[in-house]
Each structure stands twice: as structure tokens, then as C-alpha cells.
Write a structure and sequence with these properties.
Helix 2 packs across helix 3. This protein has a single domain, classed as Ribosomal Protein L30, Chain: A, CATH 3.30.1390. The chain is globular, with a radius of gyration of 17 Å. A three-stranded antiparallel β-sheet has the order 2-1-3. The chain is built from four helices and three strands; from the N terminus they run H-E-H-H-E-H-E. The N and C termini lie far apart (about 50 Å). The longest helix has 14 residues. By secondary structure, it is α+β, with helices and mostly antiparallel strands. Keywords: Plasmid.
Length: about 100
Amino acid sequence: MDSSSKEQFARLEPVRAIDRVASGTPAVFSIRLQPDHPALRTIEAMFVLARRGLSMLKAKRQIEAVIETGQATVELPTVEDTSAVVAELDTAGFEA
């Protein structure tokens, strides 16, 4: 592989896949499954948590805990608006 190919495939800078909220206060949420929701959107729910300061791994584990046990308590470090978190989780099939 010549140097021009290496440069072409080199990662120039870290890519941020998640737009995190700019500011907010810590908040604790109790997350549960919606009993009559037609389809869970687990990936969407993980992004809701990750945008508020959790790592993707921690967000994934919290959503998995909700699915396995029916409930999880999550502390989010940066919540700009609690009603926005509740609404976004609601569209994903979760109650907060």
C-alpha cells in the first residue's frame, strides 16, 4: 500500500456519532416498559440516554436491564429538560 492510499484511509479525527446536549442538570429517572406499545425502539432509547451524558455501553446496559427486569433507575448527568427525556423515551416505547 503506497503512502497516498494510507492517507486516504487514515482517520483524520475522532468522529462524534452522538450530539450531546450542551448543558443541563443531573436527574434520576425510573424507566419502565410501556405495557401496550406495539414495538420497542431500543436503539432510539439508548441514544436518548447517551445524548444526556451516559456512554453508549452504559446506555445499552440500562435499556437491557429494563427489558430483563421491567424497570431500571438511571442517573443522567446532563438533562436539559425532563419533559423532553420523557417524551423521547415515550416514542421509543418506554415510560419514565
